[in-house]
Amino acid sequence: MSKTFPRRVFSGIQPSGNLTLGNYLGALRRFGEMQDAENEALFCVVDMHAITVWQDPAKLRSAIRELTAAFIACGIDPQRSILFNQSQVPAHAELGWILSCIARIGWLNRMTQFKDKAGKDREAASVGLYSYPTLMAADILAYHATHVPVGDDQKQHVELTRDIAAKFNHDYGIEFFPLPEPVIEGAATRVMSLRDGTKKMSKSDPSDMSRINLRDDADAIAQKIRKARTDPDPLPERYADLESRPEARNLVNIYAALADEEPDAVVASFAGRPFSEFKPALAELAVSHLAPITARIEELLADPAGIDRILGEGADRAAAIAEPILDRTREIVGFVNSRPAR
Ligand code: AMP
Ligand code: TRP
Predict the structure, then answer these.
(1) Catalytic residue flag (residue 115)
(2) Ligand 1 near 22 CB (within 6 A)
């Protein structure tokens, strides 16, 4: 590739309720750090992705507002960045269709998230759940975004986006779409369940004890950490010695990410001490970090009209970037574009 595209950050999160510490450490907190004054970063509440599985309409509406509040509480500034919900910008759906004609069935068949989410009865999954990654590619490419901060589990989808962009450019013989980079950084790109260190901490886990929710109060957080599964051994001398102890390693990773320290330094400062001493320190750290965020979320949610206004303004600004890119895409594909200027 010879053409260089200006740096532009895009990321999205599904409004499916119950944001967790995993969402915070793996995504939300890092988004705030990637905001860019020169070239607006875009943060999207991907409500169209959410309906790939059944969503109760009233709950979906409140989850969209809750996620918007969480974005802001975690440091996204809706003036500096563009914060909006996907369904208010039709370019996502339109480009999604065009890109679904570029992506190959064989590529989608390799997506592990579909296999996980569809479960055993794949025939009963929605068509949208299957083609989900082509809509995600459209989210990113509609803005010519170059950098996509995500947790580890989304790497495969960003790589697919690159493949789709490259095939589009190749088929039409034009360097039109950038090949976006996944940005996966930090000690906690994969926060694990507090009950099972081999499973990702997830908002959809049936056990609430497996996760810390961004809206949990201090008592709930402390109790969940106290009851988190560990093994009977004390903390070792070196982080590397935690390799076969996934639950212990997860708690150390969480501590390191919250304290902004290297996992090695965390292990060194607790070496030889039992988890009964480490856990209260972790609980205190988690509460002091999350309490102001929780409070801010509640404060913002008290004014739903204010949140809707932020989303509407964000969608206008997003559409102003996406529409010219979409017009150009239509032209490249060969569609006739002859409506009088709107
Ligand atoms: P999701 O909740 O699956 O829509 O994910 C939203 C964002 O949070 C994505 O960037 C995920 O990669 C990230 N994320 C979700 N769960 C975790 C986790 N347990 N650890 C790290 N990142 C996560
Ligand atoms: N698929 C992502 C997830 O499940 C959410 C998402 C949709 C996204 N569109 C995106 C993430 C674009 C980054 C960029 O977490």
Answers:
(1) no
(2) yes
pTM score, two decimals?
Answer: 0.92
Indicate whether 228 and 290 sit together in one domain: yes
One domain, residues 313 and 245: no
Give yes or no: residues 295 and 309 share one domain: no
Assigned domain for 339 exists: no
Annotation marks residue 200 as catalytic: yes
- Does residue 36 sit within a domain? yes
DSSP codes of every residue in 162-194: HHHHHHHHHHHTS--S--PEEE--STTSSPBPS
Ligand 2 near 48 CB (within 6 A): no
Tell which residue, 267, 250, 285, 227, has the closest CA to residue 22. Answer: 250
* CATH number of 96's domain: 3.40.50.620
pLDDT given for residue 1 in this prediction: 53
**Cα atoms in the 13 Å half-sphere on the side-chain side of 320:** 8
What is the span of the domain harbouring residue 244?
208-299
Tell me the pLDDT band of 36, cut-offs 50, 70 and 90.
Answer: confident
Read off the pLDDT of residues 184-205 as tens digits, 9 standing for 90 and up: 876 677 899 999 999 999 988 9
The reply to whether 129 and 253 lie within a common domain is: no
Give the number of other CB atoms < 10 A from CB of residue 217.
13
Residue 46 CA, closest ligand 2 atom number: 7
pLDDT score at 18: 82
Q: How many angstroms does the Cα of residue 338 sit away from the middle of ligand 1?
A: 42
* Domain containing residue 276: CATH number: 1.10.240.10
